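TICKET #2291
ISSUE: user wants both folds in one file
ATTACHMENT 1:
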Amino acid sequence: MAAAGAAAAEGPVARSGLRSGEAQAAPAGLQALAVFVILAYGFSWAWTLPLAAAGDVIEKGSGWPTHLPALLGPALAALLVTAWVAGRAGVVDLLARIVFWRMPARWWAATLSPLLFLALALAIAAAVGDIPGWNAFGRYSGLPTLGVVGVAVVVLVGALGEETGWRGFALPLLQRRYSPLAASLIITPIWAAWHLPLFLTVAGYRGFAPAAYIGFVFSLGCGSLVLTWLYNGSRGSILACAVWHGLFNIATATAAGSGTVAAVVSTLVIAQALFLLALELRARRSGRSSVLRASHVPRSRQSARARPRRIS
């Protein structure tokens, strides 16, 4: 991937002196990942499990009960474990990647691709007479009816809460030991199991048929693959991953995101993931570099200052 030109456009991973995929938790190993997972589950489940025990059901367009504070659990866990394994420099790097937006236009196009998928889905829905009303995009689980803009803001914050953990922390750590493809697959069951209490509380999840659980995990695996490609290609932008994640949720998890719209958007993301997987496997067979990893991230002259502490 060609450099964007100025040092400010190289991405916070490059400026921190760590190569793409090495980020704040680079040498911490699987011990740090285990602590992160325990904390992420603990923070999130401390909110959602009491709701499940009380038999509360989270509905679209209703502000209580709500699961939304639980979405911040992975981010809080990432910040705490980063401070432990990488100190202040690691936390600064993590925060920089949360707001990093200076990436090439093609990666902004990839970030906003769920909007294109949604447009295609709405066109198909209109053709078959299943078009949702505009106001339906303003109804989301655990939120009062806020309108499209209000829902979009809250959904983006929730996506940042998740992506700071899954892509901002876990993915760079795993890519120290594994290929991007393997790292994506390892994150998938961790990400899926984190959702378990939601199947007891969120109305849309409670209605899943047994076979739907397999489809849910498969869909998360496809999303994980796309987000790994986006994270690495955008030079470590957690913001890019959160925007993609948030737009996908608006397209599929609001009151409008059901029926034809949800089916079309989900199918397009699955097709995108399978296409990336096919390219990745072909690159492996031919000995070429990974399609899922950024091809060029310059090293900083200030690398020594950003090195995280090593733990055994």
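ATTACHMENT 2:
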Amino acid sequence: MRLSGGVRVLMAMPMRSHDEPEVPLASGPPGARTVEVLGVRIANLHTIEAVAHMQKLIWTAAPHARALYIVNAHTLNLACDDPSYQEVLNGADTVFGDGTGVRWAARWQGKKMIDNLVGTDLLPFFFVNTMERHYRYYLLGALPEIVARAAEYLPRQFPGLNVVGYQHGHYDRATERAQVLAAINDARPDILMVGMGNPIQERWIHDHRAELTGVKLAVGVGGLFDHWGGVLTRAPRWVRRNGFEWVQLMLQQPHKWRRYLVGNPKFMLRVAREIQARSRVGSVGS
């Protein structure tokens, strides 16, 4: 069914009654499960723990939609430049870390990131490992033809996945805002995936989460719809494993060269300065 303003709602599988899954939050020694990078608190979890945590956010009652953000070096550079955006990130229920930059920043603090929780791996892992729950998914973001292809791709790639609707990200914010929010709430998704890029998607979730009364969990997914919509191709596994997936992304999106060739060194310099400043404070206080 297609609504005006580019909103399309798909036929959904019926809701299945089921008990709340046993998905305890990860536990550990104080401070061992989070890493702070450039003022943003990042959860340090195994992928399996991340899936359990996401389910806990879905099942735990809340007055508004829960918020989950996934940050990388570029995201953290933006937050460093804009304190209000840093507040948005820290206002999430949970922040996951993505990429080599976050891992290096943690290592320089004497901590090890357990897993790289990049959305292109985490979301498919979540789909496969929670399929029996019949969670409901809604896609918001990207160009009309891309998000449409992404919404059609998911049930083909993951048979039985319950995609209940999608909406492109280029709707008129002034005149179509209420209609888009109503369509999302009417679809009652357990997970709303918002793919508008940083910092737009996190600000959108932050600004609208109180109005997302039909949504359990809103997740910022960056360019994930471009992958599912056939615009981007993932780097080979060995490239990803060695921390150079950003090179493949830059080659496919050369207009973003500055983000990587300038942004990555800037990020590492900022992290080094932050760690040095903390060390000075610690030596003065000792």
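RESOLUTION: both attachments delivered.
EXTRA DETAIL ON ATTACHMENT 2: Confidence is low (pLDDT under 50) at residues 1-18, 22-32.
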